[in-house]
Amino acid sequence: MADHLLLGKWGEDLAEKKLMDQGWKILGRNISFKGGELDIVARDEKELVMVEVRTRTFGKIMPPECSVGPDKLRKLVRAGKYYVLKNKWEGPWRIDLIAITVEENENVRIEHFPDITYGGAY
Questions:
Q1: Cα angle vertex 30, ends 45, 5, to 5°?
Q2: Which of 8, 80, 115, 122 is least buried, going by the fewest C-beta atoms within 10 A?
């Protein structure tokens, strides 16, 4: 497996552990649909959350939280809507971002950005 794929999987494992440590229930990982993929689907109490995970090493051109552009947001919303319809979810849902940066000194910075579509996913 290519190094960037291994880094991505490692980041998703780390994000999943962080969410579980916060009491979230993980419903699935790497759920693929035509035209999109959801890295993590979880429940934060009564809200369904699709979590995009971005992992970067320090020194990349842009930090992970800046790497989700308009096209990716549209794909995430489309995949989220499809997941909600397919699973007959009737409650609130949102899309979050977990940005993981592996710094030069090998420290790991994890940042959680809730509702990156600002309610536009509903």
A1: 125
A2: 122
Domain presence at residue 39: yes
Question: Nearest Cα to 97, choosing from 71, 64, 122?
Answer: 64
65: tokens are: 């939280």
Instruction: Give the tens place of pLDDT for each residue, 53-106.
Output: 998 887 666 667 777 888 889 999 999 999 999 999 999 999 999 999 888 778
Domain extent, residue 57, equals 3-113
Instruction: Please classify residue 41 by burial: count the beta carbons closer than 10 Å to its beta carbon, then call 0-12 exposed, 13-18 middle and 19+ buried.
Output: buried
The answer to whether 100 touches 56, Cβ cutoff 8 Å, is: yes
Q: How many domains does the chain have?
A: 1
CATH number, domain of 89, equals: 3.40.1350.10
